[in-house]
Amino acid sequence: MSTPIALIDCNNYYVSCERAFDASLVGVPVIVLSNNDGCAIARSAEAKALGIKMGDPIHHLRDKVRAHGIRVLSSNYTLYGDMQRRVIAACEAFARDHEIYSIDETFLDLAGFEDRDLVAHARAMRKQVQRWTTIPTCVGIAETKTLAKLANAAAKKQSCFDGVADLRDEDVRRDVMQAFPVGDVWGVGGATARKLTDLGITTAGMLCDMPMKQARAVGTVVLERLVAELRNVPSAAVEMVEPQRKGMAVTRSFGTPVTTFDRLMGALTEYAMRAGEKLRSHGLVAARLTAFFHTNRHKPDRPQYAGSRTVTLHPMTNDSLELIAAARRAAERVWRDGYAYTKAGIMLDDLVAADMRPRTLFEDDGDKRARLMGALDEINGRFGRWTAVTASQGFKREWKLRSEMRSPSWTTSISEVPTVRA
């Protein structure tokens, strides 16, 4: 018998985080915007009821916002990340181990809890999360990750489950799968869903009954393993260990257009610093760096230009200062005066594990610089990102994203902690 798995999912997570610290948002329509205050990426149930779709541009919603008194907020990722930590802390006593799937979803290994009533166990966990964080959740229980995802969706959408769906019972599992659209099954992409629909397979139940060989022919071994998981057979369709990354990027749109090289270099410095931090956190080094920047492609009536240049990192590195120097070399070669740039970024390719990187004949001992990078990461981790920066980045950050409606960082900034007066 397989070990039961639970997936706990925070409902309307970004909105729920905001409501935890601002009671005036409870019961009213709320939307949270993407980077640069562009599109709706989180909506309360009240906002969804008004017909606001995921990804709707805010400039298309102005009339609806005024007419219905919708509260509009900028993304506050610092708050959301810290609240995720608190949600996981509330769950720790209810599982042997956990695996973070996304900022609002976490898989829980329930080995050792099999002799309990797992539905009651999950309800107790939901209550503890709500008591510690105020955030509402739903829980799906099954014996494979694919079924746990499906169970979570059922717990969220079907009131009969009251927030917790257990699909270990075959009859319950079959009833849920027969009503579940195949395009909504975890791991079924749009192209695969169209192929399955053309074959008359429209529900998760039909996909479960699909012959394994046919599943491989339609969607390669990935779909074959997915079918196995729907049949309650755990597989490697979702790996417990994240595969090694081959590349990474740090890109941002500017809050205001950038017209000077020094200001552009300030932004690229920040992105290179962040890229180095990400490399070090994953224990990787990079062989190539690409710096790019471009004007607003959605305004063809204005002068357009896009610059991009790739440089080789020799030796391979995750040293932020070396990445900054490489970004400057790349940007200098393609910079053009007279344009208003609205986006830039750093991309890193050919990543390998730091302890597996090829050595060069005249390579210096990097222990001193490694300690410097470690100290930099520790300072910024303890006192907040960008506490310690290079001179070329500066502190003003004129290029930073628009975030005009961001809530305070209630839990991570001492200057923004709410004040209570009796």
Automatic annotation (TrEMBL):
Q: What is its EC number?
A: 2.7.7.7
- What are the GO cellular component annotations? cytosol
Does this entry carry the keyword DNA damage? yes
What are the recorded GO MF terms, alphabetically? damaged DNA binding; DNA-directed DNA polymerase activity
* Enzyme type, top EC level: transferase
Share what the entry says about its subunit structure, partners included: Monomer.
Locate the coiled-coil region(s) and give their ranges.
Answer: none
The UniProt entry, under SUPFAM superfamilies, shows: DNA/RNA polymerases
Report what the protein is called: DNA-directed DNA polymerase
As for what it does, the entry says: Poorly processive, error-prone DNA polymerase involved in untargeted mutagenesis. Copies undamaged DNA at stalled replication forks, which arise in vivo from mismatched or misaligned primer ends. These misaligned primers can be extended by PolIV. Exhibits no 3'-5' exonuclease (proofreading) activity. May be involved in translesional synthesis, in conjunction with the beta clamp from PolIII.
Provide the family line.
Belongs to the DNA polymerase type-Y family.
Q: What organism does the record attribute this protein to?
A: Sphingomonas rubra
> Which keywords label this protein?
DNA damage, DNA repair, SOS mutagenesis, SOS response
- Its domain of life? Bacteria
Reaction catalysis annotation: DNA(n) + a 2'-deoxyribonucleoside 5'-triphosphate = DNA(n+1) + diphosphate
- InterPro entries this protein is in? DNA/RNA_pol_sf (IPR043502), DNA_pol_Y-fam_little_finger (IPR017961), DNA_polymerase-Y (IPR050116), DUF4113 (IPR025188), PolY_HhH_motif (IPR024728), Rev_trsase/Diguanyl_cyclase (IPR043128), UmuC (IPR001126)
Per the UniProt entry, what are the Gene Ontology biological process annotations, in alphabetical order? DNA repair; error-prone translesion synthesis; SOS response
Signal peptide start-end: none
Occurrences of domain UmuC (ranges): 5-189
